[in-house]
Design brief:
about 35% helix; three-stranded antiparallel β-sheet; 9 helices; globular; alpha/beta
Length: about 270
Amino acid sequence: MTQATAGATAGAEASAATAISVRGLSVRFDGDAGSVTALDGVGFEVPEAGFVTMLGPSGCGKSTLLRAIADLVPMAAGAISIFGRTPEQARRARDFAFVFQDATLLPWRSVIDNVRLPLEVGRRGGAVEQHAEPEELLALVGLEGREDALPHELSGGMRQRVSIARALVCRPRVLLMDEPFGALDEIKRDNLNEELLRIWRETGTTIMFVTHSVPEAAFLGQKCLVLSAQPGRVLEYMDIGFASPRVLGMRDTMEFVQVTAHLRGLLETAR
């Protein structure tokens, strides 16, 4: 795909440009029992073509933070920009795409037709919409030859590959991923971790990735954002300096164990 060659170097090392800027973000939800503060004073920046993972206790606002960036929940205070645009402007420009824990494929549509879906339900503001070829994306995620399969004919890992291809079809500059591999077994999860890093290197897409797995957060991320318990606040925005390309065997090294031990220690204080 056209974006792949241009993004290969960008995926390996983030450029100086800022993709996502979050400043003083607070999110509150009002209900019958009163107001609940989900996020309070959150601030950080994600570099263009960077890969940021996010950890925190259940209910700390990790998913809420992704949804605020995606213009799916309102901000009570603060500001968010995506390549200089507001979340609403970025959403309308299709600057980002969302991958959820469930693949949410339409069961009556083939694999290729599920990937094509974003091209059918909306268009960018420009006169000519730029998009990737669905067939090329299926090859990118390792599903070449399964274009005509229906979702029920695929494994859980394959369905998530389709959802990633669908998210990439409009060539988003940012990919927001909310525990996309959380329901998979360890073998499939490890395989998709390696595949995701390969896709990231080849496309140069900026990724924010929520997980509850400390090893996954350390293996995937260039940086890891750790949030405290509700209300979510930034405990640490940690650089993870492992060299690329990363391989699963590195998880047995002392350096990796030290990083995961530090992250676990942060999570203990986050409760």
